[in-house]
Amino acid sequence: MPDMGFVPVIGGVLVLGICGLLIGKDLISPEKGKIKEDREEGPKDLGSSRRPLLISLVLIVYPLILVPVGFIPSTTGLMFFCLWIMRFRGWFGSLVIALMATGFAHLLFAVLLHVPLPKGVLG
Amino acid sequence: MEGLLQGFSVALTPTNLFFAFLGALLGTVVGVLPGIGPIGAMALLLGATYSLPPATALIMFAGIYYGSMYGGSTTSILVNIPGEPSSVVTCLDGNQMARRGRGGAALFIAAAGSFVAGSIALVILSWLAPILAEVALKFGPPEYFAIAVFGLLVLSQLSGQELLKSFLMVGVGLLLSTVGMDVITGQPRFDFGTIGLKQGVDFVPIAMGLFGVAEVLEVAKESLDDRKDVIRVKLRQLLPNRVEIKRSVGPTLRGSVLGFMTGLIPGPAAVISTFLSYTLERKISKRPKEFGQGAPEGVAGPESANNASAVGAFVPLLSLGIPFAPPTALLLSAMMIHGVTPGPMLIQERPDVFWGVISSMYIGNFMLLVLNLPLVGIFLHVLRTPRNLLMPLILLLCVVGVFAVNNSVVDLWIMLVSGIGGYFLRKMDFSVAPLVLALVIGPMMENALRQSLMLSLGSFDIFFTQPLSRALFILAGVILISPVLWRLGRRSFLKKGDGHAR
Question: Does pTM top 0.90 for this prediction?
Fold first, then answer.
């Protein structure tokens, strides 16, 4: 009789088998498996390829600090760095937008919808 | 008819009317904006609808889904940028019409076609869904397992990527769905001792990561200077002339039927229906050379088809409880969060939800017609929002939306991992739709498989002794091997041709 490991084992074997086939296929004809190059035309700023990495780093830090620091400071930080990385005006404009957006999100979720957001250092 | 009247009594309450309007409006806005689609918008709002009654929340979500189909056409016609994948085809003739000064007429044809198609599809939905739900009451675990396998196989074929890649995504989705408490034995699986994973991997953080965070990361890599060349349209230019109306009637009706039927098929039905409709219209047209130069048929057909298919996709969801496309998978998630169990019993247990949602779609469809044409200028202003402001705002809604669902930091990690993973998957040409659907269908599929095997004392014969499951498995087999046979046949035909040429 199938127990609770039945489907995970079948799924695991299936995934491993397909991965093997895809790797084999890529080894035979490497062109098809190659990661897409940036197809964009026209001038590009040099930092564009670093932006996803920087945003990912900010996103990794966010869950780590959300509970101890609290929703408002950590989310303002997240927004500020994302706006700054994506070059939305200067640092002051980014900070103002970050504060406003976080304030609006807090108002909507914590005040109106009573979602318990972490208070952190603000108690 | 009685059910539909009951539905209207639910949908016509001031609260539900407001949320139908809000859903339609939000749907139009996300349809206008390239990048954020109906799935992202619904996922973002999931946390914000907790306090609403189930029918109200679902009325709003349904409004977002079909509203996005309307909004997508506006940017296709006036900016030549499809807001949604289902509006790509509309760019071909819609934008050409706009460049020749007939942008207003193209917008009217798209909106009126969408309205007519949506209404026709709703009439069929109101008639078909209860019948199918009654039939589905007779289904047992083998039939449900067969439907799920059939759905995932067809979706893999239609997702527009290499079949092996689709299967891999299905496999990953199924594996993710096995995390958490086993429904049959009550034992935890793959939770690594964390409470957050005991309840399983939630669909919302995965969807937000794959569709929201991955999109933000992708846009961050692109050039952020995106000034758009928008063609302006005045209100009095909105009416099409007699010839344009005459040329749009047939494609609208054909697109409605074709779109609804495509909506019943698993996969990106709305996109497929537009291509099918465009090809059909060009094939039967007396002026095929005008296609791509601004033919009204090229706007009316696909726009009707994508709206009808969006309505058609509700049939398997409402009557079987099985979503065949990512947006309906999110609707299923929303239903479960609000304590509504979708499936054949829905019509009996929660007629207010079943008929309320369907009735609200009639009203929402009319709202969209009234909303879309006069407010086209405002929607185009939304399009001018700089992407380097819009993307961080989407990110904010993603993190707050995900956290609000379970108040769990684990969910934030899941969203983060799936977002970064989704970004790389996009780069490697993997479509994530099969993963998302497999994650949603997975628990039901696993239960159906194990219950079937328990009934048959471990024998797989049960799937071939039941007529429906046998038919579905045979059909799935045919679908699976037909591309291989087609490719082999084509290769041997080409070889023969080469031999003759020599």
Answer: no
